[in-house]
Specification:
By secondary structure, the chain is of the alpha/beta class. Helices cover 42% and strands 17% of the residues.
């Protein structure tokens, strides 16, 4: 690849590609002519997303928390040039007083462990000049009260980026760290609470708005397409980490 290359001749696998940031990412690359394979848990949503993406897009049902399911996903996907991992678990925020009873093991399994397993299991079919892009969260770089659990989960994943980039070279490994992005991740909150919370974040963010999935997809494309970027965690948070 050149320093800034087209994706039209690439096969990009997007885990978590049927909703939110993953869907926006898959759509962006499909629009740029890439072959896209998306993975997700919900078969009906996968099928609908593949129709929406059009072209040579393909969907494979997968539970990213299950190592055997991931193995099957990569076997069925075949050779890929790039991997994007956007899977996460909803929720996880809460005060420090609740951490003793929180499902911390589940939170790590659903994000940090799932991402790292995906990286390991993609390697047999990932191109030698390929790339891996993980999606973490700004909680790892901020100091927002009530996010210690989220910060630990995402911080662990961000800490792995540099050693992975060194070990897997010349393959490139990067992460994009979104701030508050208005996706279904917030759906666990009651409607009134969700609206108030999102409005509060928008007002404190330097750009005075919350993110959109398309914002993060553009950041993912920036690191994936530039073959001179590796070992980087790119904030895409509207400056929220500065507040």
């Amino acid at each position: 690849m050149s320093a800034s290359s087209s994706t039209s001749d690439r096969h990009i696998a997007v885990l978590g590609g049927s909703a939110g940031i993953g869907l926006a990412t898959a759509q962006l690359f499909a629009d740029r002519g890439a072959t896209v394979t998306i993975g997700g848990r919900n078969r009906d949503r996968l099928e609908a997303t593949v129709k929406e993406l059009g072209g040579s897009a393909r969907g494979i049902e997968v539970d990213a928390e299950d190592a055997d399911a991931l193995r099957t996903f990569f076997d069925e996907a075949g050779p890929i040039s790039d991997l994007v991992v956007t899977v996460t678990r909803r929720g996880g925020a809460g005060p420090a007083t609740e951490l003793a009873d929180a499902d911390l093991a589940g939170a790590f399994l659903g994000k940090s462990v799932a991402h790292l397993r995906a990286v390991a299991l993609a390697l047999p079919t990932l191109a030698a000049d390929g790339s891996i892009t993980l999606v973490t969260a700004a909680s790892a770089q901020a100091a927002l009260p009530g996010t210690a659990g989220l910060a630990a989960v995402n911080g662990a994943l961000e800490a792995a980026v540099a050693p992975l980039a060194a070990e897997l070279a010349p393959r490139r490994v990067n992460a994009v760290s979104p701030g508050v992005v208005e996706t279904g991740w917030w759906d666990d909150l009651p409607a009134d609470t969700r609206h108030a919370t999102l409005a509060q974040f928008a007002s404190r963010t330097p750009v005075r708005r919350n993110g959109r999935p398309e914002d993060v997809a553009a950041a993912i494309a920036a690191v994936l397409e530039n073959s001179f970027i590796t070992g980087v965690v790119l904030p895409c948070d509207g400056g929220l980490r500065l507040t």
